[in-house]
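Quick one: structure tokens for this chain, please?
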Amino acid sequence: ISTFTIKQDFDVLFDKRTKSLIKLENIKDTYNVNIQATIKDLENDELTLNQAKDVLLLAQQLINKNWNSYKEELEKKADRFYIISFIKKFFINEENYFENEVLKKNIMRNVDKKMFQIKYDLNYMIENKIDYDYANLNLEINAISIYITSLINYDLSLAINEKRNTQKIFNIIMIFSIISIIL
């Protein structure tokens, strides 16, 4: 039972944190590789406007899919076993000092704003290519990359914290297992 509960805790940690980090990295890569590179190619007349439009629309779809999936993962509650909840409640002090929901919500709100601004700028650029200021759009993409990196760092610190808590739970379960074997 103890091995099963620890395995489940590690699985939840992996699913909850690692998969969401991959989605954030995909968003960041899509902005940097697909959108910025396409804009640079368009600016240097290496792509036609129709080719760039297709790439940019596909990139926006990928970004929206990953961002919405990331938000859905955040809303899901982790299924905890009663044993783990009991141990956390009575035997260990969970370290939650890394958790700052206000910070995370602000970063996510900033990402939403930047996504909207970039989408608006891309649509404007596609319709009015003549004399478009590409530097401003590149700055927006760099800014969203910084926000996403902050979100990744925040999630990584939470994952490290949760790993410490899981290690404490494992130690307590091992002590109980040894005592029960001896008895």
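The two ends are 17 Å apart (CA to CA).
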